[in-house]
Write a structure and sequence with these properties.
202 residues
Amino acid sequence: MSKPRGSTALDALLEQACPGERGASRRAVLAHALPCFNSRGIEAATIEDLRQRSGQSVGTIYHHFGNKEGVAAALFFAGFDDQSRVIAERTEAVPDAHAVVVALVAAYVGWVTALPELAAFLFMARETVAQGPHGDALRERLEARYTPIDARLAEGVNAGLITELPTELIPALVLGGAESYCRGWLAGRREARPTAYAGLLA
C-alpha cells in the first residue's frame, strides 16, 4: 500500500499525539484510518476495514478509541492540534494586527500543503466531529486557537488600524479565501500549491 503524500510529516505528527512504544498501536490505527476514511468516508468505513488495514485487533481498536467515531475524532484532533500549534508559533511573535493575518494565512496554507491527506480529512470530518459527542472538545480547541489571535486583532481595532468586526466573523473573513483555495487544490481543481498564493490570500 502506497504511503500518503506528507507521510513523513504525518508520522511525526502521530508520534507527538501518541508518543512512545505505548502509543504504537494507536499510531498504527490512526495512520491507516486516514486513507480508509478519505477513500470510503467515515460513515461507510467499518471497524473491520480499520482492522484489516492497520493489522490491529478489533479489541485493540475498541480499547483505545471506543468505536469508529472515536477513531475519527482522535485522528481529527491529532491534525487539528498540530495545525493549531503551527498557527500559534507563526502568529505569537509578529509585531502588529496585519502581520498576524499574514502569519495566520501563511501557517494555514503551509500546513495544508505539507499534509494534504490529513487536511482533506479535517475538511471532511469537521462537521461530523462538531455534531457528535466530541463537539464540546472541538469548540474548546477553537476558542483556544483563536482567542490570542482575536486579542491581537483587537489591538489593531483600538489603534484604528483595522475595522471592528464581530469576533465570530473573523476566522471566516481572514481564512475564507485560503480555505476555499485549499479545498479546490485538494480536490484537484487548482494546480498551484496553496503556499504559492499565501501572500495574496492574506
